[in-house]
């Protein structure tokens, strides 16, 4: 194609995406961008009291009203994106990488390693996630690195189970048998034979798990056990302003809407991923 | 050819079913043991010296050493774990660090409150969810189906506290039907009880019925693709008869399984709902215990929750085994 400005739209790259997926992708990209440059866009410093009225309404000056101390909610939501998206993204990467590595290794090695690991991680999986979070926060306290590791550990068993099921299927394929007959090591089998064949589903699973982690992180913060003041993610913002709920203050509603827009968009994006145009099978 | 009877002959059950069910119960027991170990290890082994928290200002080295000895904290970890487990099995739940009351006494009434909330929620949510799940499957692809399924995706992907805050906004702030965030401990009349229960129950119902509708719908749709259902259609059965008489009896197993699984979502919901509505239940007790780092109370509450969760999951699995027609002789 010899157009002057070649802009790699999905269609030019040979992909088709429906409009629901398009909108969802835009919202996800928007929040990712806000997480990176959000504080630069905020009209006021997030910690500064700018309004004498607490739980103020939406106005031209304060786009999302003011919170229980009279701080600008819009600036605080922009700042909170950094914590919600950042912590969740780090945790989901941790969970999926460890889950996928363990899952593939268990499937390839098999034997007692597979049985033992599966049993143990299944047992971990049968502790309700919110409860696990509560117990661990009670024991070790709450800071951002702890939260990342904790959320990562809570969602590792799920990622493990998913990756193992995929890897077990690939493991029975002829090319793996051939590689094994060539005398390749486990590391080679896992990285060169199994991994490239499960990347797609694993990435979709990563998206779903990201939603779970955002929800759990917000839930913990809402209980006052997640991100601690003076920092605030979206769950903490809802918690600190819950007193405004009887008046229907926008300070409660706006951070909740931010969470909902992110999680619903990620879900919709996964359900409407771009499909290759030539591939009419689905 | 003799047609296979639908139910197992006589009182004797299929030995394969008995073996599978017993195996499942065994797995549940082992899991409970591992879970108890994780809970114990997390709360007991990790940094933060209990004794120093307990003594506070009076934490002289001698007092710390003496109390450590008195609380058997110098014993090997496994011994402590064993002692804790035996105490738990005998109903000795230890003393709360915060106010030195026996944990069993603190939990008793609160557990009843939480179970009451769960029972009311289940009584409301299960019939509604089954109705919606079955009717959406019957009218798959219709506008009604699409509205319900979109609503489910929305409910599943937002946090529970958001559903609670929306319920408050709608029913208390805009419609002014119910009180906002108060819980009256002295309930005198039935009307008052309804008002108090309404908001937590509405929230929890949304949380658990979303999953239940989704799984019920999937189970019925699955049954509707079977050849015998098509046969019923070809014979001229009405859509209603096709679903009610032919598909549904065979989907009962998966549906009951789905109901038991969805009820396990109550746990996550109940923690948020009791906190937001200030409901005097066991989850609120546990969240408060986490804030004060009251370890014996946390351990007991965690074990009660895990036990409830495991019971529901195991029940779901056993129902799935029992309802599998391939296992009938």
From TrEMBL, chain A:
CDD domains: TM_PBP2. PROSITE patterns: ABC_TM1 (PS50928). It comes from the Bacteria. It is found in: Cell membrane. It holds the Pfam family BPD_transp_1. InterPro entries: BP-dependent_transpt_permease, MetI-like, MetI-like_sf. The keyword Cell membrane applies. GO terms for biological process: transmembrane transport. One of its GO terms (cellular component) is plasma membrane. The chain crosses the membrane at residues 20-41, 83-112, 132-155, 206-227, 247-270. Gene3D superfamilies: MetI-like (1.10.3720.10). Keywords: Cell membrane, Membrane, Transmembrane, Transmembrane helix, Transport. It is a multi-pass membrane protein. Residues 81-270 form the ABC transmembrane type-1 domain. PANTHER family: OLIGOPEPTIDE TRANSPORT SYSTEM PERMEASE PROTEIN APPC, PEPTIDE ABC TRANSPORTER PERMEASE PROTEIN. Belongs to the binding-protein-dependent transport system permease family. This is ABC transporter permease subunit.
